[in-house]
Write a structure and sequence with these properties.
The complex is a heterodimer of chains A (525) and B (708).
Chain A lengths: L1 H6 L1 H16 L5 H25 L2 H7 L6 H20 L5 H8 L12 H20 L3 H21 L4 H32 L4 H13 L5 H18 L6 H9 L2 H26 L14 H23 L4 H22 L3 H25 L1 E3 L2 E2 L9 H4 L1 H15 L5 H15 L3 H26 L5 H4 L2 E2 L4 H15 L4 H11 L24
Antiparallel strand pairs in A: 1-2, 1-3
Helix pairs in contact in A: 2-3, 2-7, 3-5, 3-7, 5-7, 5-13, 5-16, 5-22, 5-23, 7-8, 7-13, 8-9, 8-13, 9-11, 9-12, 10-13, 11-13, 12-15, 13-15, 13-16, 14-15, 14-20, 15-16, 15-19, 15-20, 16-18, 16-19, 16-22, 16-23, 18-20, 18-22
Chain B lengths: L1 H8 L17 E3 L6 H19 L6 H23 L6 E14 L4 E12 L1 H24 L6 H22 L3 H19 L6 H32 L4 H9 L10 H17 L8 H4 L5 H10 L4 H8 L1 H4 L5 H21 L4 H21 L3 H28 L9 E2 L8 H15 L6 H15 L5 H26 L5 E2 L22 H18 L2 H9 L19 H26 L2 H12 L5 H7 L4 H47 L7 H21 L1 H11 L4
Helix pairs in contact in B: 2-3, 2-5, 3-4, 3-5, 4-5, 4-11, 4-16, 4-20, 5-6, 6-7, 6-11, 7-9, 9-12, 11-15, 11-16, 14-15, 14-19, 15-16, 15-18, 15-19, 16-17, 16-18, 16-20, 16-21, 17-19, 17-20, 18-19, 18-22, 19-22
Classes of the chains: A mainly alpha (525), B mainly alpha (708).
Amino acid sequence: MADKLWFLIPEIWLFVGVVVVSVMGLSRRKMFRDLLPLVVCVFLVGAFIITPLLYSEQRISAAGLLMPMLGKYVKMLVCAIGVILTMLSVGLIDRDLEASMSAGRTRFDPIRVNRGEYFSFFMLSIIGVMLVCNANDLIWLFLALELTSLPTYIMVAISRPSRKAQEAAVKYFFLGAMSAAMFLYGFALLYGATGEIELTKLRDVFAAQAAAGGLNRVAIVGLILTVMGISFKMAVVPMHFYAADVYEGAASPVTAFLAFVPKTAGAVALILILSTVGWSGHYGNGAHGLPREILTALWIMAVLTMTLGNIGALLQRSAKRMLAYSSIAHSGYILIGLIAGPPHGLNAVLFYLLAYGVMNTAAFAVLASFERKGEEIESLADLAGLRHRYPVMAVAMALAAGSLIGFPPLLGFAGKLYLFIAGVDAGHIALIVIAGVNSAISAFYYLWLVGLPILAQSTPQSETVVARPVVWPRVAAIVTAIGVVILPLFAQSLLKASQAVTVERETTALDVTVAPDQPEQPTSP
Amino acid sequence: MLGSFAATILPIVVSSESAVVDVPVAQATDAFGWAALILWLPALSTVLCGLCAVMKVKSKLPGWITVGLLGTSFLLTLALFFSYEYENPVIIHALQWLNISWNGEGETVQFIANFALYVDSLTLLWMLFVTGLGTLIALYATEYMEVDVGKGYTRFFAGISVFLFAMSALVLGDNLVMLYLGWEGVGFASYWLIGYYYKKPSAVAAAKKAFIVNRIGDFGLALGIYFIWHNFGTVEYRVLFEALNAGGYSTETAGWSVRAIPYLLMLGAFGKSAQLPLYVWLPDAMEGPTPVSALIHAATMVTAGVYLIARMYPVMLLDEYALPIVAWIGGLTALLAATIGMAQYDIKRIFAYSTISQLGYMFLGLGVLTSFGAAYHVFTHAFFKAVLFLTAGAVMHGFAGQLDLRKVSGLRHMPGWRIVSWTMFYGCLCLAGFPLITNGFYSKDEIIAQAFITPGFGFVALGVIGLITALFTAYYAFRVWFRVCAGPVHFEPGDDHHNGEHGGGEFHPHAPRLVINLVLVVITIGAIASIFLGDWVLRGVGDSTAVYPSPHAEGDGFWANPHRWMPWVASAAGIGGILLAWYFHLANRSAAERMKNALLANGLTRWLPTAMENKWYVDELYHATVRAPLWILGHFLNLFDRYVVDMFLVDGIAKLPRALARTFQPLQNGILQSYAVSMAGGLALVAVLVVLMPQFVEWVRSVMGGAG
């Protein structure tokens, strides 16, 4: 247990940050309140630096986790993207209130200021993802997943002073609660079928069951409930209904957060849950794999998610709604990696999470950089002719969209390439063909995001759009857009970093060994 | 000088007559690390020119940056030249580039292509004139392009820098991928610079033509490189030549994909070096500014094909018919281009055809196994052709774009044109192969004489063709000089009044100033100096990959050894051509017109002058046989695309997702309860289908395909 605590140091450190931030947010001095994003960044960077120092061989073997190295990659990833997301949120919360307080029209009222809460919840949600990586039993996993989601409900509600945001928050909360009920029910059935809640022991029991002629029926139903319930976090069909409304209702920085942080938590949780049953050929004795029922369900969900996400985006005239549907479609691509399984599939999933985090945040950062009369822009038409007034932002948007399409040599291309290769390697040709067709469909609507800012002429409507007074969203857009171009150069080493992650600990109870030999990867130049 | 003369005309004695390839083994070295700068300085120059473009520099700064960096690059090449000793080729590692390995059938396959320099005497020979002439021509261009100072000036020098970077990569690279990078790079730079006057439709068309014709050749090269990789498992010269040295690839046993390699490489070389049947782009490429014609389309880039064959000489021996075909293509191109050149009136075009013709000689030399003759001719030709183009450019510059040799006369009597006239005179002498004092004489004789010695299919006929071509060459070279530089003073300006000073009143030609004259003199001195470098080239080629024992003559009597009698015969051909030109174009200028009219009046001979003036209708032939069918096919496909693919397939399919989207849209109605029901219903549906209906699972698995 003590060894496990070592891995919690980043979370504890961030929790200190949560306390500091929530107290600072109540300060009467505007300066302290304005410093909040900086403090958040300091804590996130600190966690980013601490994390890799903790993962020593000895602690990893002592911790008794299912995939002990998963945390290192995922924690560093969410901290890094978290810094960018913090930049997007600068000046977002309490904007009108702060303005009227500066003008002396309103007195400081600790009940009414929300900035401290916002950033506290922001960090709590990130802590949730980090805890998901450390989960070794179903209860921990449940708590960690809910810690990821619960703060986001509030973040949506307070993200902007509009009824749309509150409506979105209510929908999100109710549907989220329902999904939590689903996978909690699934957990209960898993416990019922095996008598275990620890993931490593679950795996051993499943292996024994599979060797004895197949998984328990109750376990299968439990797995389906679990997988589908968790897939709500990733907005996978049929659990995707909330996505469009919630993403549209929340302010763009929060939407960017929703599209990355809960999705990462969901993907990591699914990796852990599916690891307990294992993928075909992954275990030494080869006979066990994803039960055919689970594989079928995942396959159907992947196909539907990609397809409905992409065709849903086709008709949208709102940029945010379009990106919401595209986020659904990307979850479908991620499922390909989950179906393909280790080693390549899971590596590809982890790499894709990074790629998607960077490129999707870039697109939202551009949207978050602009406003009209204090209201953020939503419609695609608002972007028309952006090049003439904000050339750098127009290029950033074009790069982000190009990367989301998977246009070589941008980051999204590398991500999709690894996913698709993993799918082909695992023999899922039909799935990859469907994914390819979907990529082509997605180009249709993403190209609006390239064409409108770069090629179209300004319209009277789009000329009323101006940049927000704070510079940080634009900085975030530029940083991520550069990342979209530069990171593919390091794709090999990033992929290598994600490779070490998915190695499982050897099982103890049965004489089933994890295939340790990873095929030779292309050495990086 | 006479010592050098003797050395170059004596038969080349080599140790062995056998056809066994014995390429010197290259060694990696840590010394000369600085040599990589030869490659990087032009790249730096490109970047700086780009910066100038961004900062909208309105001075000659980009020109001087380019000249300075290229000059440094040249000095480094010189330093490398003096510090390199004639032993084995050395490989200087600059940068790790491509190093990919994957699991092949049972073994790990590795694909390595680094940024590394392969330095042997062939490399040095090329780099000396590439960087040297590059610097001088860039210097010339600082004055020549001055009317465009500003955007155009920067664009021009950025193009020159890109070109030199690519050409250096092509020549210096230690593997075929780097060669290909340079190959495409010079093609791109050439397109960039031919289309420099992009507002002129003819320049745009010429740039397009050059690019497209070159693509045909590039296709061959790319496929050739692939086949080399496929058969030898490497693209690095060192490994490739070691494999060839080790044997196992004789012309009898090699498979078709090995035997195809020489022909594919040849196709690439013929495209880049403007040989039959792909030469048509080069005359049109003269639409670019004259320094570009001089540097890229006469002295350096077009010799890349010769370099490719020389570098890949051992590979060219993989099929026994490859080199004879190279020889025949070269010989025929030399003759054809010379006959066209005799009947043209545009000075730059004449020189363009002479370039094609001289390149033909180089391929002839490679084909008849005198790689020394070919390499030497590349070297000498680079100098005198640069002189000729730069003088033509000076004339064009001074007479407002006038290039018609009938409309400018007596240049040497005009004030300020003396250096131009006499450097052009020396250039023409070199081109004509005037005995003893010109470099072209030594290199060309070497090639023609070897054609008479090497046994091969019709090589003697090729030697005769070479001699006839030499006569024609001397004639058309001096036709230009006697028309333009000699005779009574007379000129008509061209229609290119770009300078405001000529706007209103009478036209005054403006003579070239210091920089242009200086560059002309320096290159002329370089041309003279290259006479004495024959020995060095001879030894150097022997140490390079182009080594192959040239057969030598059987006897040693005067008539038994072509290397003995060739100087006399070739001199006679050259002087004969000059005398003909003197008679028709200086002494008795109307005689040429009269003869042409007489030929035209006679129904039997009318075709000859017409066909020559119209370039043997090759462009028209290509139009009818290649372009027109493609055009018709293109239009047919266009209609097919528009009405079948676009209207029916594409629009139809494009409507499908939208129709689907509309079908599913009602589900997304914004009502919380309906979302919750849909989610629960979706979950229930999936659970029921996969848990309770095994048939459904089986059906999906059949759709999924072979997956586990």
